[in-house]
Amino acid sequence: MDATKYLIVNADDFGQSPGVNRGIIEAHQHGIVTSASLMTRWVAAGEAAFYARKYPRLGLGLHLDLGEWIYRAGSWVPLYSVVALDDASAVEREFYSQLDMFRYLVGRDPSHVNSHQHVHMRDPLRSIALEFCENLGVPLRNLCSEANYFMDFYGQTAEGLPLPTAIAVDQIIAMLSALPSGLTVLVCHPGDVDDLTTMYQMERRQEVNVLCDSRVRAMIRKFGIELCSFEDWNRRKNRSDLPTGT
Q1: What is the residue range of 142's domain?
Q2: For residue 5, what is the enclosing H or E element?
Q3: What CATH number is associated with residue 193?
Q4: 154 lies in some domain
Q5: Distance CA 98, CA 8 (A)
């Protein structure tokens, strides 16, 4: 049995703005980010896709975007909305519209699927996305049995209050030290944001700094962790499925 610890470090929101793109690219070139999830509706999506084609070591999946909500005066209110989340027909059309745009920009299918603010965890999007991912053979975040997902590298509380200790070097090193064998996906949101209205803004720069910190890379080496992308994992899995012998 393979006891190797594999780690995918996946950056969400690629393509949402030039600033987000800068942060993700920096965290890939100088840090531990191995994968990103592309938001196809936004102005910087083409730039992000161009980078991913030029640097294929950065894996690329689809980050479905049906809206964003912010916490104000004790409740969640929409910052923007793409379609009504309970309208199955509209959700399905939007899913395939964003998928088609991904294929147009990138020239292939996504290596994985997830969604902005995790709206794929509820129906009807859950069922639509899960069927697609099962047919394509790619993972849907938190609904893939072969992966452990680490979602706590996030610099805000559930109510949107600052939580800087969650995106500190000590926090990520503690996660790495407890990493189990098999595949783990660390979800992150790096960016260099001065051009985006969002509830998660200043924290993105701190994430970049941590993901590029030399102490984090040193701990990955110390614990024998193998960084990879979803594409790398799929290729490894397919090789292990091949029959042995003559």
Answers
A1: 5-241
A2: strand 5-14
A3: 3.20.20.370
A4: yes
A5: 23
**Do residues 216 and 173 lie in contact, with contact meaning Cβ atoms separated by under 8 Å?**
yes
**114 CB burial (10 A radius; 0-12, 13-18, 19+):** buried
81-99 pLDDT, tens digit per residue, is: 999 999 999 999 999 999 9
Residue 224 CB neighbour total at 10 angstroms: 10
Tell me the C-alpha distance between 238 and 34, whole Å.
20
By C-alpha distance, which of 99, 94, 88 is closest to 60?
Answer: 99
Tally the domains of the chain. 1
Task: Tell me how far apart the alpha carbons of residues 40 and 47 are, in angstroms, rounded to a whole number.
Answer: 11
Q: Which helix (H) or strand (E) holds 139?
A: none
Render pLDDT for 123-181 as a digit per residue (tens, 0 to 9).
999 999 999 999 999 999 999 988 999 999 999 998 888 999 999 999 999 999 999 99
Query: Pairing between strand 67-72 and 75-81?
Result: antiparallel
Residues ≥6 apart with Cβ < 8 Å to 192: 19, 20, 22, 23, 26, 204, 205, 208
Judge whether 149 and 163 are in contact, CB under 8 Å. Answer: no
Kind of pairing between the strands at 5-14 and 225-227: parallel
| The two structure tokens encoding residue 95 | 């899913």
